[in-house]
Write a structure and sequence with these properties.
This protein is α/β, with parallel strands linked by helices. The protein contains 16 helices and 15 strands. α9 links the parallel β5 and β6. α1 crosses α3, α7 packs across α13 and α10 packs parallel to α11. It binds pyridoxal-5'-phosphate (PLP). The site of pyridoxal-5'-phosphate (PLP) has 14 residues, from α8.
Length: about 475
Amino acid sequence: MALYRTIADKLARQIQQGAFQPGQRLPSVRVLAQRMAVSVSTAVAAYQLLERRQLVAARQKSGFYVIPPAALPAPARAPGLRPARLQLSGRVAAVFANVREPSLTPFGLALPAPDYWPAAALRRAAGAVRRDAFSRSLAFTAAPGDFGLRRQIAMRMLQAGCLQSPEDVVVTNGCQEAVTLSLRLLTSPGDVVAVESPCYYGFLLALQSLNLRVVNIATDPLTGLDLGQLQRAAERWPIRACICSPGCSNPTGAGMDENARARLLALARRCDFHIVEDDILGELAHGETRPPALKARDSDDRVLYCSSFSKSVAPGIRIGWVAAGRHRQRLIELMTANSSAAAGFSQLLMREYLQSGHFDKHLARIRREYRGNLQMALATIGRCFPPGTRATSPRGGFLTWVELPRGLDAHTLYERALAEKISIVPGGVFARKGFQNCFRLSCALPWSSAVNAALERLGRLASRL
Ligand SMILES: Cc1ncc(COP(=O)(O)O)c(C=O)c1O
């Protein structure tokens, strides 16, 4: 790679990590050239590249300054839909098979890239398991799961404001199983379940597999569920459960504020439905500390809290859990019927890793990185996508929800992007209907020049739709 690009990437990373704040002056061209031991023309070329990426701006006779990322307008809110059974199309399965193709720039994958796994600390934890508890790791560790791991999970949940004992926690194979078992526990086939729209595709798969009727609740891409519409739906139909991610939604990154969470819980009590809270992105809030989970306010086990370490540690470990409270025994039965238990080695690995105390350090790093990556992505979207494009700037996670101007078809963009070795997930995947001009963009990959260039290419493709 050309030297000036390497220098531009380094500076971009520092800007992204907050070493240089918006409005701050960057080192002069001469100082930069000296520090990096390059010629003045290379330093100038690096700054010019950052200028083209809209990360810095030149001021006459004064040097280069960091510019704040472009604030894009938020996408529109979607309407709700009446209850119906789902019939998800095979086209969606094809989308997910395609986005996993390793040769693509993976904007379509909502999973942390390997650079964001705490690989060295996990290797140490795996070494400790092999050394101290190898036979135990090969033994059958039945539901509710290893006590030491459940203790560590209960301690972590304190940071989300939830006072849970290890007895409340049932370990599952990832968050998908946690959500599916919770829904199965709360409902019978044909029951009505309210769901955010757009929502994580796995929710739709679970709802379809359980033969539930689904009522889509309009969801604001910034503030989450429309509580007025949820209330009207609950007054009109016998809603048994509502499945949502109040902390940070996949695909929009929306988060509900304290007041909205309190209202959601009050509504659930008044209309007597349960909530399946999927908090898989909760640990990735961009602030110093994470906001409390909805479960933190739950005094009557109305909320079944589901999560996993797939987004915050590594996706292949497959350790998730449900904080099930008084539903615990029934959940253990369902878990046993479904998959018997989570793998013993993974359980002990996660226990050891959490005990090591490394997790908070790791979270601080990836939160900072994801926030920076999103800033870079939004700046590029603002610059390279057709005028009128909107996108969310979430306060957590690594996903942004992009809305193209009306009439532009995101599925066509997805197909053309695949031909250019770039993946995205078109919006139609995340709901029964609509979102044809939207797509989800994941920023869980290190933001190099090549990645930024791929996003610029995607913008050019969108401009030619
Ligand atoms: C909101 C949400 N819930 C659940 C899952 C599934 O998690 P796991 O891989 O731990 O089963 C995902 C993964 O993409 C997700 O985004």
